[in-house]
Structures are given as C-alpha cells and as structure tokens.
C-alpha cells in the first residue's frame, strides 16, 4: 500500500472532480425560472464568457512569450529542462480551465437560486452553495490533479525512471514542476487584477450614472451597466478568487515538496522508507489529496431546515461545515505525518547546525497552520464586521463629514495590521522552531487543505448577490429578494473572512517559496547587511505600494469610460428611461472587458519585470551570480513584507468602510440620535465606501498574487543564479579533505576543505562542523566515508543532465 | 595644526552660536509694532512657552526613568559606562534648549515680520529669514557643540587619556557617546509627535467650528482657537522640525564616527596619521563643523531688493543660498577628505573580504549624499507642487466628488514612493560600493552639513504664516497681508521640500546607525533566512503602520476636545461674535497642550517598548545573545524600510491634497470650465485636505523619528547583545592557530581557529582568509605576528573596563 501512495493524491483529485461533475449536473437540472429571468441570466453568462474569451486571447499571447523565454533559458542553462515549458503551459491551461468551470457554474447557479428562493430559503441555500461547491472542487481538484500528475511524470518517467537516485535529481524534478506553478500564478495575476478592475469599473460606472445621476435603484434593468456590474461580481469574486487560491494551493504544495527534498538531503541524501524514499516529499501532496475528500464531507454539512431562518442560522451552517473540515484535516495530518515521515529526522537549521526533529513536531506545525487560518478570519471579522467596535467608530466619525470618515477607515485598516502581523510572525517563528522551513511549508499546506471548502463558502456569496440582482431586474416578489438578501448578507461576511484566508495563504505560501528559493540557489542565506541586498529590500517594499496605486488609477480610468458610455446611452437611446427602449448591455460589457485588460498591463509588467531586471541586469554587468541571488532574495522579502501589510491594510479598510455604510441601512445611533440612509452622515459613509471599493476589490486582493508571483519567478530563475548550477555540471576531480580539532577544549570545530572542478575551473568548498568534540569526530568520519558517494553523485548529475538534454 | 583638528568642530560650533546671538539681538531690536499686534504676538509666545514648559515637565520624568534604566544597565553590563547617563541627559537638555531657542525666536520674529511688511517685502523677508537663521544655527551649533564636546571629554580625559590605544577603547567612547544621541532623539520623538498632534488638533478645531459652523474667516480674533492654531504652527513646524533635524544631525555624525572607527580596525587597528590616528573618526565631525560656517555664508546670500518682487524672486533668493551652500560643502568635503584620510584604506566588505579604497572614493560618496539631498527635494516638489501634473489630476478628480479626490491623492502619495525609493536604493548601493558603510554614513553627513541652512529655509515659512495671521487678527492694511502671503506661499513649498530632506536624512541616518549596530554587536550580518529574523522583519514593517494610525486617531480625539471647547465659548461668552466679549485663548491653548501630551504617550511607548521587548524577552528565555541581536537587526530593518515608505506616502499625499485645494483659490480649469473656491469640486478638495492634514503634519513626519529612534535604541543596547561583550572581558589564554592550504590550486582558503577564555569559559573563534594563494599566505603571517598584540589588546580592554568602573 505504501508504495502506491504516490497515486493517492491523484485518485482523490479525480474523485473530487467526479463529485464535482455530479453536483454540477444536479445544479444544472434545477429550474432556471421564467423567460425574463433566463434572459437576464443569459446576458450575465454571455458577458462573463466574453470577458473570459477576451482574457484568454490576451493570455495566450502572454503564455507564448513566456514559453519562448523559458525555452531560451532551458537552452542556455544546462540545469534546467525544456519540460518546464510544457509544465508552464499546462499550469496556465489548468488554472484557466478551473476559472472557466467556476464562472460557468456561478453564472448558471445565480438564476436557479433566484427561482429556488421563490419557494424556500433552504433550497436557495442548497443551490447557491451547491454552485460554490462545484467551483471549489473544480479548483482544488484540478490543482491537485495537475501538480501530482506532472510530478509523477517527471519523477517516474523522465528524471528517475529507475527509482530514487539522489536529492539533486529530485531538485531537477521540482524545478521543472515549478513551471506548472508559474503558469497557474500568471493566470491568477491577470484574473485577479483584470477581474478587480473590471468589477469596480462596472460597479462605479453603474452607480455613478444610474443611482446618482439618473436616480434609478441598484440592479435596475434600465441601467445599461447593470449586466456588466453583475458580470463583474463573477469575474472578480469568483474567477479572481478561484485563480488566486488555485495558485496558492499549487505553490504551497510545491514549496513543501521542495523543502521535503531538503529534509532528505539533510538526512544524508537517502532515507529508507516504505514510500520509495520520498515520504517527506509525498506528504504535502497527500495532505492536499485527503483535503479534497474532507472538503466534500464539509460541504455536505452545510444545510438549513427552517424556511424562517435568518443570517445567524445560515452563517452557523457554513461555520459547521468549516470547523468540521478543519478538525478532520487536523486528524488526517496526524495520521499522515506519523505514517509517512521517519520518526525522527535531521534538519539543518541555519546557524544552528543539524537538529533532530521528531515527526510529532511536524504535526504540531500543521496545527499552527490550521490555527492561523482560523484566527485570521476572526481578526478580519472583528475589524470589518457589522456592529463591532471599529465599525461603530467609523460610523460615529461619519457625523463630522467625509474627511473624518476617511481618516477613521484608514486608521482601522492600518491598526488591523497589528494583530494580523503578530499572528503571522508568531506562526513563522513557531512552525520554524518546530520543524524548520519544512514546518512553515507544511503549516501552509494544512491550512490550504480545506481550499475547496473555503472556495465553496466564498463563491456562494457572489452567486447569491447575483441571484438578488436577477430578482430585482426581473421584478420578482419582495419575499424572493428578502431571501436572497439573507444569503447575500452572509456572503458579505464570508467575502471579508475569505480575503483574510487568502492573505494568510499568500503570506505563508510566499514564505515557503522564499525558503525553497534559498535552498534552490544554494546561497548561505540573505544577509541584509550587504548594501545591495538592503537596497533591493527597499525596492521590493516599494513595489506593492506602486502596484496598488496603479491598480487604483486603473479603476478610475476604466470607470470613467463606463460613465461616458452609460451617459451616452441614456441620451441617445429613445425610451430607455421609460423601459420601452432596450439598453445596449453588451457595449458596457465590452468596455469593461477592454478597459480592464488594457489597464492590467502596467501592473502586470511591474510584477514580472522587476525581478527579471534585478536578476539579469547585474548578471550582464558581471556581478557574481550568488550575489545576484541574494539581492533577488532581498527583493522578494521586501515585496512579501510590504505586500502582506498593504493587503491587510487595504482589504480591512475597504471592508470596514463598506460595512460602516451598510450600518446606516438598519439605522445607527450617533450622539444619541438614530440616523438612517440619506442623512449627511450616510453620505459621508458612501464617500468612504467609494474609496474602499478599489481597496478591497482591486488593489488589496492583487497583493496576494504580487507576492506569490514574485517569489515564484524567483524560484523559476533560481537555477540560473543558483550555487547548484555549479555542482550540477561539476565533476569531483580533486577532493582534498583536511580537518583540525582544537586541543584542550570540550568544544570542537572542524572545517573540511575540498575542491571540485566546475566546468574546468577549480572551486574551493568548505564544510564546517561545530559542537561537542565526540559528535564532531563522528561527523567527520561520516563525511570521509561519504566521499566516494559524493563523487558518484556528481557523476550522476552529469548523467542526468545528459539524459535531460538528449 | 593637524593635531588641533579635534578642536576645530567645537570652534566652528561656537562661532556659529556667536553669530546666532548677534543675529538674534538684531532681530529682537526690530520694531514689534503697535499694541494690538504686540498683544497677539505675546499670546502666541506665551502659548508656545506654556506648551514647551508642560512638555519639558513631562519629559523630565521620562528622562529620569530612562536614566535610571541606563544606570542599571551600566551596573550589570561591564562593557557599558555610567557616563552614558550623563551623555543621555545632556543630549536631552541640548535638544530641548535648541527647541526653546527656536520657538522663542520664531514667536518673536513673527510680529516683527508683520511690522516690517508694512514698509517693504525685502525687509519682511530679511527679518523672517533672520529668525529662521537664528533657529537653524541654534540647532546646528548646539548639536555640533554637544557631540564634539562629549567626544573630547570621553576620548581625551576618560577612556584614552594617554592618546590612541585601540579600536576597542574607541568603541567604548562611541558607545557612551550614543547616549547623547539617544537623549536628543527622545526629545525629538515627543516634540515631533506631540507637536504634530497639537498643531492639527488646534487647526481642525479652529476650522471646524470657526470657519464651518460660525462662518468667520481664518485667523479671526473672535475665534478662541486661533491663538492655539498659531501656536501650533510654531510647535509643529518649528520646534518639531528643529528637534527632528537636531536628532538626525547628531545621529548621522555619530554613526559615521562609529564606522570610521571600524575603518581603523579593518586597517589593522592602528593608522599613523597626523590627526592622532583618528582621521576617519574626526572627518564627519569636521564636515559638520565646516558646514555651520558654510550655512552662515549661505544665509547671507538670501535677500531680495525689489519691493515688487513676487514668489519666484523670493524662491530664487532661497535657492541661491541653498545651492551655493551645497556647492561649498562639496568643495569642503574634497579638501577635508583628501587631507584627513589616508590616501588608501583597507575596508572589510561583507562577503567580499578586505578591499582597498582610495580617499577619493570616500569623497565621491559625499557627492552621492549631496545629490540625494538635492534631488529628493525636486521629487517632492514634483508630486506636491502647484501646477504640476499630479496636482492637476487630483483637481480634475475632485469634480466627481470627495471619493475620487481621495483616491487620486492616495494614489499620488503611493506612486511618489517609486522615484524616491529608487533614489535611496541607488544612493545606498553606490555609496556602499564606493566606500562601504563608511561611505553611506559620510553621504549622510555631507547631506546634513547644510542643516543650519535647511532649517533657516524651513523655519521662515511658519514665521511668515504667523506674520500673516497677526496681520489678519490685528486688522492691518491688505498690502501687509499680501506681502506676508507671498512669503507664506514660498514657505509652503519649502515646507514640502524640507520634509523630503528630513525623510532623506532620516533614511540615510538610519542606515548608518543600522550599519553601526551590526559592527557594535559584532554579528555576522542579518540573515533574513532565519525565521525569527524574518518574523521580526514583518513585525518591524508593521510598527510604522500602526504608529501612523495611532497618531491619526490622536489628532481626531484631541481635535474633538478642541471643538467642544470652542463651541462652549461661542455659547457661553457674551458678545464674543460681536467682538466685544474676549475669547479665552488660554483655555484652548491648555486643551491642545494637555491633549497632545496625553495622546503622544501610546505611540511613544510603542516606539520605545517594541525594541526593548524584542531584545530582553528572548534573552530572559535563554536565547543566545547573538541570535537576539540578529532578530533586533531584522526588526530595525523592517521599521526602516516600512517607515521610509509610509513617510514618503503620507507626506506627499498630504502635500498633494493641500495644494490641490489651494489650486482652487486662483481658479482651475475642469473639463473646460473655470472652477473656483466654493464650488462642489472645491468642497471635495477640502475633504481631501482634511485627510491630508494629519498625514503630512502628524503621522508622516513622525516616521522620521520612529525609524531613527528605533535604530538608536538598538545601538544603545548593542553592547548588551554584542559579541564584543565577550571579548570585552576576555583574557586570551590559549591561542591555538591552525591553518591549511589547498594543494594544486591557485585559489586558497585558510581557516584559523583559536580559543579564548571568556569569563572562564572557553570560546572557539575562527578567522577565514580567502583569495589568491600568495595573498592568503601574507595574511596568515600577519595574523600570526599579530598574536601577541591581540593578547595585549585583550588585556588592555580589561584594564580600561577597570578604569571605567573605578
């Protein structure tokens, strides 16, 4: 059984996808309502498809360019394989396909939810959450399927057809696999940023001319931008979020695999386990696989029975599913970790030497990840939730005008970084202390195991929002809108907490990628006391800030185009305001599509261009490749730290403003007086929400992709910069081992110096052992004994390079 | 002459102070106008004094607490001296005294400027700029006087009475001297933060009730908060900015001295020059000393002749003075560097070994600093200047409401980090590449050399602003206000560029302190691949964000108290609106004073508490002191990177909103139509300015102090964490040198291992030489020859510790 474990994740992924197809056909079989409803839904469906098609056209150009670049790199750098191009293209296709499934099901489920809401709330929840489940399983299933399939192909058929050889070969496998992750994350960049611009441009355009200038209500069918607005909800919140988590999922598991390989290396390059010697590498894949099944169980628990249920019951049903799946993942982690890992492992802690780590400590790391995932949602909920202190304060400050409302919202977003960052810092520290960077990566893997469930909870929000829109546009009974509003309201909360989860996952994923990068390049670490590294830390810190500004400006520009189009239609189409003239919805959809795709170019270029410039310009000027690797590492750290901060700040400030505005709908008490919609204070709150919209839906969520993609690009170019580029083509010709011990002391230090010949050039390498004298002696003996093995290993690498190139 | 150079800076400082006294008495002799003007001016003077006295009372408690803490540390840690307490107290007193001089002269000059404006613009400029000059020279003179006097006392009379001994003793001198810098920066924290809160609370309070609710113009004498508002200009812009630059000045020179000491260490611990062997340490002091005289020359060039002059002529006069002083500093740097430094130096570049650096390369570093100081002002000017593209865009976006105005302002501030950070990064990199961290510190020193001139330009703004206020309140001829408005308008521009200069100085100072910290602790560098260090990088990045939020909230709270008081007075004092009842100005002043001092506590605690917690809690839990030192270094880097970003973002966004609002005064073209004050677009711009006020005057400028103080606290506790705490009490008992060379290779590496006994415990130390074989051989010989010297040096440290403790 153990030897078959490599196929377990793929089996689970396929099971998940089968369940998805069953669920999908069940949703599709539901009644999609009368003619008007169907017509509106079709408009949304077509608009969404139009966006996706336009996006995919653009992306295929992008994919071709990057593929050529990767092929060129593979040609010139002997340690990289052409197969990375295939992996990259498939990563992009899988991610796009997952987005496609999500968008299609979301735009088909919305009208069915409206129809179900005519009869009862429980069935409306069942359908909308069913749509979300399809989306979640599609993303998670394809992510695991793609990643594990490529791993098996590269491992079993290309690089190590005869079974485990050594960690260097496995590094080649994983470096090639990084292409899949890069492809997925590239799609995510454009889906998140483009989607974010799309949704806000349509929203602002529809509101500014429709609500404010023409005085017609939200989702009014006379508003030409209303379809674009509803498409936007799907494009941004469904496809964008899906691509984001698809990327995180793949990257997290990959990073954990890379670090698992380094655990094997630290243990001497070989472990003798029942899993073909790759237990630590298989573990994150297995957790991901089991997570899919657990998510299915979780989704089955989400249901309500009473037709009179309100928000708390719906929220309760979602929470039940969520908590149960988290608990099951914890249990599964215990089982998998103790089964798949050696009871004790040796891990090399930077600056502390090799430390014995028990498999239980790895399990505790996974608990850290699950804890962070759960707590970050509560933190987000506190700072952005209706009725909570921060929101009440913003409401209070709205009474003195828009200026004080804005200040209060900004301050709330800023303050919210305090608990979030302390939580992340504690998580990094503790999971590292438990099991090194492998622990950090497994914490992230455990947290991401429930991705399918998280996405189901997340996607049901915009579906319900759309359902409400369709009810409004097709002029249904008020009871229908009331029911969808309950779902929508819960969806707003889950949207905020889902963003918290997405940030946490991006942060931990980036750290794991960062650690994988350092191990890939073989640098000693990233020392910010070197001025070029420090300078790049500064530059990296600046990029998320500028990226956010570009995204916000993009929304502004795209919205202005939308405003002009809506104004034009109101003026030129006769009878449009009376409901006799038909608005040209497709023109608005086209504008949003075109503008968002155009405007995402510059931020995209910034994200991809900066790391490439930092890596290649100094190389061209003759800087040493390891120095460049360290600089790029500094840049990655800067982007991650600053990106996480700006993500939290912008998401929470945006969420807080949104709910401060919504507070006025039920009425709020300001200085002892009840204040409602339409008051001056409410107007101030609306201004705050206008500022918050691009914060929370465009620039804030884009930060996730920015930090992950930056670290992934680093990982992909790591072989070019890396130290193991040396040894990869090295031939150990001349090994001179010298050692010395310190006399008259219990403490001992031994330094072993040996030379290897890399491409004909002699390189001096040292290895240092420190500690109690007897330990050091043992280690020296092992090193000497290992000498022949090392020469063999170097030869092996040459062989495998030859195989790869042949 | 060379041997007397140590007294040169002190002589220059005294010269500067003498010139300051002459200038001061000249200003005081000017006509202070009629009864009403004098009365208002006296109110402002008394209000400012009341704030200063209240602040000093509070600060003396703070100084006592910190002094006790420092004394406790000095008692327990053998490598620190009790004298640091004296230095700390004097640093605080000197900084407070400099602030006092500035506030007094500013509040005396304002009315004299108003009086002079009755006759002519040139004499109004002469007087207001004269006041600024007094302020600038007071700050620079006292900074150089205090720092150099303490250096001479510690060096010549306490630690090395018989002349140069070794770099370890000099490290003790400089560590003790760090107390002076810490004292100065502590005062700056409270002056900047407290002043920032004060000025905005009074401003918002005066505007909200006076202008908006009661409909009376700005600076109307019937407004009870108007005096507090004018006091605030002095408290924030004069005393706050003065304390900020006082702190930067001292810290920069100190950091450069520390790094100069390490240059001597890298050169073998001894250089034989005409300056008593301390040329590299004296150089930054000398540049500062000469800078004072150069600044006096610069101020003499600031004058205009025509009474019909407008803003460009006034600006031109200021620019002339500024550019000439920068050019003179460049010339002086050339002379001093080539005269005082050895022609070539050996500097140890981390990871690259020892490199030969010519003194000319140090000179080029100073040019880098001067370049950054000049360019950052232009960058700031571009993003915040009237009529520039970013401002026009914000104006344009104001037409669609406050929301879009806010987004545009935020985006402008965010985008402005792009050129600024690239500039800083390029400066760090290039000055480091030229001459290591000594080069970075000297770049900062050169930039700061014109501090007196910069402050004169800076302080003249609020003086002119006040002069205009007095003209308004005492109901002078419109021509008087027109003239003061010209000065005020130029003052607004110089205020923005001055903030750019302050950020640049804070950034470079922090980097220099950071480098000094690493050398003080003796750690290998700061490796962010260690998870605890990375976690602290995150925490450090979060602190400026939370600090900013606290400062903004503080303004809100303090402003609310002011609003209530003004409302109360309008209601309760009979005849106040008719001008027959006298407003109780002092009550408003008292409220601003009390509120600002209360509200600055929490941010202050955050600033000081975080580094202490990070250093001492892990120590208590038994973490190794070098690991703690590295973590604290990570924290410092996080604060610096994030702090610089948030400083630029907030200052420039605030400045941009301010000038977007001001654009409406002259009228702006929006969509082809001229739009003026009172329009909807203008109202939107006013909202933006409300948000921008605390950004640019409270939280933004506080960032400078936050990052400098964080790095200084690190520097002061460095001896506790430091590696040289070991060797400080070490006795080299058992030196075993072993070495080995690699055969059959041109490249060689030698590792020398020796043990020393530290407090009875044996510690193994290694020293590694890499490079061409013959070089390595030479170095090993030098190391062996140096062995006896090293034992002597260790004995010496024991001796000097004994002397210190006796």
Describe the structure.
- The structure is a homodimer of 806-residue chains.
- Chain A folds into 2 domains: 2-728, no CATH class; 730-805, no CATH class.
- Chain A has 22 helices and 7 strands.
- Chain A has helices at residues 8-29, 35-76, 83-119, 121-159, 167-214, 226-266, 279-300, 311-340, 359-384, 389-398, 402-415, 417-448, 451-473, 478-521, 531-572, 585-599, 601-620, 625-666, 680-721, 724-728, 773-785, 787-805; strands spanning 344-349, 353-358, 668-670, 673-675, 730-731, 747-758, 761-772.
- In chain A, the strands form 3 sheets. Chain A has a 3-stranded antiparallel sheet.
- Chain A starts with 7 loop residues before the first helix and ends with a helix.
- Chains A, B: The chain crosses the membrane at residues 6-22, 58-77, 83-106, 127-158, 170-191, 246-264, 276-302, 323-342, 362-384, 405-429, 435-457, 501-520, 532-552, 601-621, 627-649.
As a percent range, the share of helical residues of chain A equals over 70%
Order of helices and strands of chain A: HHHHHHHHEEHHHHHHHHHHEEHHEEEHH
Number of helices of chain A: 22
The tally of structural domains of chain A comes to 2
**Gyration radius over CA of chain A:** 27 Å
Order of adjacent strands in the largest pleated sheet of chain A: 5-6-7
Largest interface, counted by CB within 8 Å of the partner chain's CB: A-B, 96 and 95 residues
What would the average pLDDT of chain A be, to the nearest integer?
85
Strand content of chain A: 5-15%
Strand segment tally of chain A: 7
Shape of chain A: globular
Alpha-beta content class of chain A: mainly alpha
The biggest beta sheet of chain A is recorded as: 3 strands, antiparallel
- Which ranges of chain A are low-confidence, i.e. pLDDT below 50, for 5 or more consecutive residues? 724-745, 757-763, 791-806
Q: Note the quaternary state here.
A: homodimer
Distance between the termini of chain A: 35 Å
Catalytic activity (chains A, B): Na(+)(in) + diphosphate + H2O = Na(+)(out) + 2 phosphate + H(+)
GO cellular component, one term (chains A, B): plasma membrane
Organism (chains A, B): Olleya namhaensis
Subcellular location (chains A, B): Cell membrane; Endomembrane system
